[in-house]
Amino acid sequence: MTPGRPVPPPLGKPLVVSEETADPAPSAPAAAQGPPTLAAAYGATSALSGLVPLTVARRAPKEDDVEIEIDFCGLCHSDVHATRGEWGAQSYPLVPGHEIVGRVRSVGSAVDDFAPGDLVGVGCLVDSCRECGSCLEGLEQYCERGNVGTYGVKDARNGDSVTQGGYSTSVVVDRRFVLRVPEALDPAAAAPLLCAGITTYSPLRYFDVEDGDVVGVVGLGGLGHMAVKIAKAMGAHVVVFTTSEAKFEAAIELGADDVILSKDPEAMEGANRSIDVIIDTVAAPHDLNPYFRTLRLNGALFQLGLPPTDMPPVSPGALIRRRLSYAGSLIGGIAETQEMLDFCAEHGIVSDVEVVTARQLNEAYDRMVAGDVKYRFVLDTKTLQPASEKADV
Ligand SMILES: [Zn+2]
Ligand SMILES: [Zn+2]
């Protein structure tokens, strides 16, 4: 980390602005070039339906589009919340999935940076306004007009149709939001990098974690296990906090240098002033004050989980006395996601995954909610039923 600079500036890698993106009317929808393709999918038809076979209409690629044949899609906890309507009103039918890896099937006439056969990925975003301050800084996830999520969001550039995600055999995405997946990475195990990977990589990079820094990771699930691997690769000494002694061995196997039982006050006291930055991945409400006491001067705690109800209050004194930062962070921009994928390829990092078939999706959701997964489920889209002759959505 950079002493005295606990919150360094963002990476700020803007999207490449070509003559075409500088067009005075970039949001004008280009004419579709043909009929949509019907793709097999799995999704929810209501908050209570569970996941069922569906057929989704994918638009014919426009000039800037990339049509992707999906091979794998990771199962993120957000998918469970969204399909079950736990995050508010949802448009159904809804095909979830934003950890997409596959190969390019075809490209639009203006696409010269991707070609059929390329291994590519799509994460949590498929568009943004491309004009606001955040977008121009390459921070599309923080688009001031709201980013266009990969599923369940109205897509203004495509007739306000609701986006449908990656539990499907194909998807069509603007080239600016398509990532290049290095061939060195196993495609199934690389899929979770597109959400779990970038969500933990971005705050670690923002905090400039480097050799010798001490990184704490709270929670050892899909996000937590990626945080351990990525922080280790950045050269950090990694300390895992867990409420379960049963997870000690798993934490060490993942590369953690130390494990602390967070419900043991003595163990927490022993970690006083020992950590530079904490990546907190727990989505249930929990008391952060014991964690603040483990941070050194200028330390920071990044909260990545989004609890459904209020958290216990944070003690201002704990922050003030050590000039601590209590921060949040949301996935990452497109340039940073590409940087993360290249970093993972360079360091041989992928997610620990269990590949499931379409028929196992509902069981996988229940197991995810129960915390019974090491550490990410990934759908093999070859197990999807054939598409029907009429689109459900
Ligand atoms: Zn996710
Ligand atoms: Zn924007």
- Strand elements, count: 19
- Distance between the first and last residues' Cα: 47 Å
Count of domains = 2
Helix content range of the residues, please?
10-25%
Low-confidence stretches: 3-28
Briefly note the structural class of the backbone. Answer: alpha/beta
**pLDDT averaged over residues:** 92
Main sheet? Answer: 7 strands, mixed
CATH topology of the largest domain: Quinone Oxidoreductase, Chain A, domain 1
Counting DSSP H or I runs of 4 or more residues, the number of helices is 11
CATH hierarchy, class of the largest domain: Alpha Beta
Q: Ions, cofactors, ligands: which are bound?
A: zinc ion
Strand content: 15-25%
Radius of gyration: 21 Å
Instruction: Classify the oligomer.
Output: single chain
Give the helices and strands as they follow along the chain.
EEEHEEEHEEEEEHHEHEHEHEHEHEHEHE
Commentary on this structure:
With 393 residues, the protein is α/β, with parallel strands linked by helices. It folds into 2 domains: 37-194 and 333-383, Medium-chain alcohol dehydrogenases, catalytic domain (Quinone Oxidoreductase, Chain A, domain 1, Alpha-Beta Complex), CATH 3.90.180; 200-328, Rossmann fold. It has helices spanning 77-83, 133-136, 187-190, 196-206, 222-233, 248-254, 265-270, 289-292, 316-321, 334-347, 361-369, and strands at 37-43, 52-58, 65-74, 100-107, 119-122, 125-127, 148-149, 154-155, 161-162, 170-174, 179-180, 214-218, 237-242, 258-261, 275-280, 295-303, 325-328, 353-356, 376-380. The strands form 5 sheets. Strands 3, 4, 5, 10, 11, 18 and 19 form a 7-stranded mixed β-sheet that branches. Helix 4 packs across helix 5 (222-233) and helix 4 (196-206) packs across helix 10 (334-347). The protein starts with 36 loop residues before the first strand and ends in a 13-residue tail after the last strand. It binds zinc ion (ZN) (2 copies). One zinc ion binds next to helix 2.
